[in-house]
């Protein structure tokens, strides 16, 4: 039978995006589609072209009749995605609200493409899922993660608001109080805590010491555990225990084989369902996310564009130009200047960036 072609455009390759078909073990004529953010040198942060690649990749997978599910992941073992590419933000979009608004149209379309994909979408969390990475991850239907991964936001600490999905999705996932904590304070959560709050479908170990998988040594392990052996609260260790945990972590190696096994197991279960019933069920559950996303995405886009003239212009530049010791603007100085009646402009931005820029120069010299 000759099928109609429902693709909008011919298949294209985008730098930073890998699109791969992987046969099912139980039926090689069927496959999963793996869409991989391939920018490990910048922790798989997405560039403008990469966003385009995800949009078209999700649509291409939707039209693939032999595709059972989409696996959305990142290259390497350090990060799934840490959000938008801060170098691109700082060097091109900062101070250009119209350009950033056009970019955010693409970003919104990327989130919508994930939410509207005709196949179930599994987020394979192979490391950090931070900022915009958290947002595109929550747009997926399932999350399979290894327990060294980190989850969280970056918004107000780096000049933005997590309005690319987190302010819509997090209250649905974890409740209003925990969502408020994550969105405003931007503290990173362990994969164990994220699991117990409801952000993760399946959690597996990835650290091997002396040939055996062990639980993340940076996590408090003396607290009560649930039926699956996960630490109930999953808080990070502090003080001397934290230093001991770091040493243990450095002594091991990362092995993502159990992560891939868990993804394959989930795909196997999904493939053994009626495809029409599965598709309708997923669409019905997605409606709860879509209701909030569709109601807010355009007004959020407009604000995010305008914010590139003020706080985002400052925050993204601080992150990009600062060294490891200082990637943030001087928040207290900003609050002081605002209280004094200062106006936003190049002079104020430069003043707020002084410490970060000095740290960046010191890093280059060392």
How does this structure look, described?
The chain is α/β, with parallel strands linked by helices and 366 residues long. The protein folds into 2 domains: 17-206 and 256-306, 2-enoyl-CoA Hydratase, Chain A, domain 1; 322-365, no CATH class. The protein is built from 13 helices and 13 strands. It has a 6-stranded mixed sheet with strand order 1-2-3-5-7-10, sandwiched between helices. A hairpin with a 2-residue loop joins strand 11 and strand 12 (212-214). Helix 1 (48-62) packs parallel to helix 3 and helix 5 crosses helix 6. The longest helix is centred in the last third of the chain and has 33 residues, at 275-307. It is globular, with a radius of gyration of 21 Å.
**Strand order within the widest sheet?**
1-2-3-5-7-10
Largest sheet: 6 strands, mixed
Q: How big a fraction of the residues is strand?
A: 5-15%
What is the name of the CATH superfamily of the largest domain?
2-enoyl-CoA Hydratase, Chain A, domain 1
Principal-axis shape: globular
CATH class of the largest domain: Alpha Beta
């Amino acid at each position: 039978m000759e099928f109609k072609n429902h693709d909008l455009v011919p298949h294209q390759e985008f730098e930073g995006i890998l699109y791969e078909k992987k046969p099912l073990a139980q039926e090689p004529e069927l496959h999963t589609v793996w869409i991989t953010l391939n920018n490990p040198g910048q922790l798989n942060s997405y560039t403008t072209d990469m966003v385009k690649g995800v949009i078209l990749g999700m649509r291409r997978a939707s039209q693939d009749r032999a595709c059972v599910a989409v696996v959305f992941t990142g290259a390497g073992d350090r990060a799934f995605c840490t959000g938008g590419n801060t170098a691109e933000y700082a060097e091109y979009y900062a101070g250009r609200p119209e350009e950033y608004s056009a970019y955010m149209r693409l970003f919104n379309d990327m989130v919508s493409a994930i939410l509207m994909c005709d196949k179930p979408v599994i987020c394979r969390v192979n490391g950090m899922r931070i900022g915009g990475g958290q947002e595109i991850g929550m747009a997926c239907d399932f999350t399979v993660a290894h327990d060294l991964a980190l989850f969280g936001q970056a918004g107000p600490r780096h000049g933005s608001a997590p309005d690319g999905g987190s302010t819509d999705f997090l209250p649905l996932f974890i409740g209003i109080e925990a969502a408020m904590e994550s969105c405003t304070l931007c503290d990173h959560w362990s994969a164990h805590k994220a699991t117990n709050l409801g952000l993760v479908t399946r959690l597996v170990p990835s650290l091997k010491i002396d040939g055996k998988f062990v639980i993340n040594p940076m996590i408090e392990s003396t607290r009560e555990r649930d039926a699956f052996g996960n630490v109930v609260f999953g808080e990070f260790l502090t003080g001397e225990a934290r230093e001991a945990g770091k040493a243990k972590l450095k002594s091991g190696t990362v092995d993502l084989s159990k992560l891939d096994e868990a993804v394959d197991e989930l795909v196997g279960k999904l493939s053994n369902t009626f495809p029409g019933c599965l598709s309708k069920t997923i669409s019905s559950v997605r409606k709860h996310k879509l209701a909030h996303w569709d109601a807010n995405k355009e007004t959020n886009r407009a604000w995010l564009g305008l914010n590139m003239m003020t706080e985002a212009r400052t925050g993204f530049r601080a992150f990009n130009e600062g060294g490891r010791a200082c990637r943030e603007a001087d928040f207290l100085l900003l609050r002081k200047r605002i209280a004094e009646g200062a106006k936003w402009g190049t002079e104020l931005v430069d003043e707020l960036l002084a410490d970060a820029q000095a740290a960046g120069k010191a890093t280059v010299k060392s």
